[in-house]
Design a protein that fits this description.
The complex is a heterodimer of chains A (181) and B (166). With 181 residues, chain A is α/β, with parallel strands linked by helices. Chain A contains seven helices and seven strands. The termini of chain A are far apart. The chains are: A alpha/beta (181), B mainly alpha (166). Chains A and B meet through helix 1 of A and helix 3, helix 4 and helix 5 of B.
Chain lengths: 181, 166
């Protein structure tokens, strides 16, 4: 027991002696990370004021958030596309009427088909599960980066859509080819 | 038995072993930092999925962690400030294991974000796949233990010109 105590005291002493160097390593890496972030095209804001973590300010400013009723109205306009970013099983179970699936989980696999059928100038309206869901914003970021000019996120997602009694459908998948351009 | 223990001790503290360990551990951390440095936004999303940090600090963590991994990884590779970097490496690995275990306990199926920010880049973590992190921690502890034993990292030449590893 005494041996352990002596050993622990020695380790603590050694660690304390290294603290200035550890602090220097942390400081150097922090300063370098700030520099790298400042020059990175996807550099992040240090303080998340609006939007979500992981979204650069210039992208947050490129897409807007609207409530589901406004979203429903916008979705009926020509050139607008309603996009469900939830997982595919949830999409197949129930979704907003005329919505197509572009799930966040598996985005890369689904994007190729989406990009083929949905033009860059289309007005893309995205929704996900509900209030605390950030998947629509994440997909919005990816679409803005890939050149989509009009991207809108429906606030409070499918939960609010259903609560407002807006039309839903279920069953077979609506393919992007069925969308009116 | 005593002879075997001495041989074993010589082997695990031999300079060649320590250089190899430094290169492997440092290399792993440098490699792990590259994709995160390239995609800080996606790394922030992964941190958010762990549901551990408050939103306000997620971006700072996403920016800082990869840089810290890179600096301490390089420090280990080049053998600079070995004690300090070995302690930081051990601390980081312990933190990663705790974060993954915390997520697994809550049943959060997540993409680890250990080496790649792309979901297709690596498998989702499970309890059984934690052995990889455990092995890394073992390596870091070994490195730290060796770093605090100067004779094992810096071989001293004796009067007969031979290196002694004790």
């Amino acid at each position: 027991m005494k041996k352990v105590q002596v050993w622990a005291r020695l380790v603590c002493k050694a660690v304390v002696a290294e603290l200035p160097r550890i602090a220097l390593l942390l400081t150097i890496s922090f300063v370098l990370s700030l520099i790298a972030n400042a020059v990175h095209p996807m550099g992040l804001p240090l303080v998340v004021r609006k939007g979500l973590p992981g979204i650069p300010n210039w992208i947050t400013n490129r897409f807007q958030g609207v409530d589901v009723t406004t979203g429903y109205r916008l979705a009926k306009l020509p050139g607008a596309i309603l996009v469900d970013t939830r997982d595919e099983e949830d999409f197949l179970e129930e979704r907003a009427r005329q919505a197509i699936s572009l799930p966040y989980h598996g985005f890369e696999q689904h994007y190729a088909v989406f990009a083929e059928r949905v033009p860059k100038h289309a007005h893309v309206l995205l929704y996900c599960y509900g209030t605390s869901c950030g998947l629509a914003a994440r997909v919005a970021k990816r679409l803005v980066v890939r050149g989509y000019q009009q991207v809108t996120v429906l606030r409070n997602g499918f939960q609010a859509w259903k609560a407002k009694g807006l039309p839903v459908e279920s069953g077979g998948k609506v393919q992007p080819s069925q969308i009116e351009e | 038995m005593k002879q075997w223990r001495n041989d074993w001790r010589l082997l695990v503290t031999a300079p060649a072993t320590m250089v190899g360990l430094r290169l492997v551990i440092g290399g792993i951390f440098v490699y792990a930092s590259i994709d995160k440095l390239a995609h800080p936004d996606q790394f922030a999303e992964i941190i958010q999925d762990y549901e551990i940090l408050p939103w306000a600090v997620i971006n700072v963590a996403a920016i800082w962690l990869p840089c810290l991994e890179l600096i301490v990884g390089l420090s280990a590779i080049f053998g600079v400030w070995m004690k300090a970097s070995a302690l930081v490496l051990t601390g980081l690995t312990t933190m990663f294991i705790a974060a993954i275990a915390f997520a697994l306990v809550r049943g959060v199926g997540l993409h680890c974000g250990c080496f790649s920010t792309s979901a297709s880049g690596e498998e989702a973590r499970t309890w059984t796949s934690l052995w990889q992190e455990a092995a890394l921690l073992l390596g870091c502890l070994w490195l730290a233990a060796a770093a605090f034993r100067p004779s094992s990292l810096n071989a001293s030449r004796t009067s007969d010109g031979l290196r002694r590893w004790s």
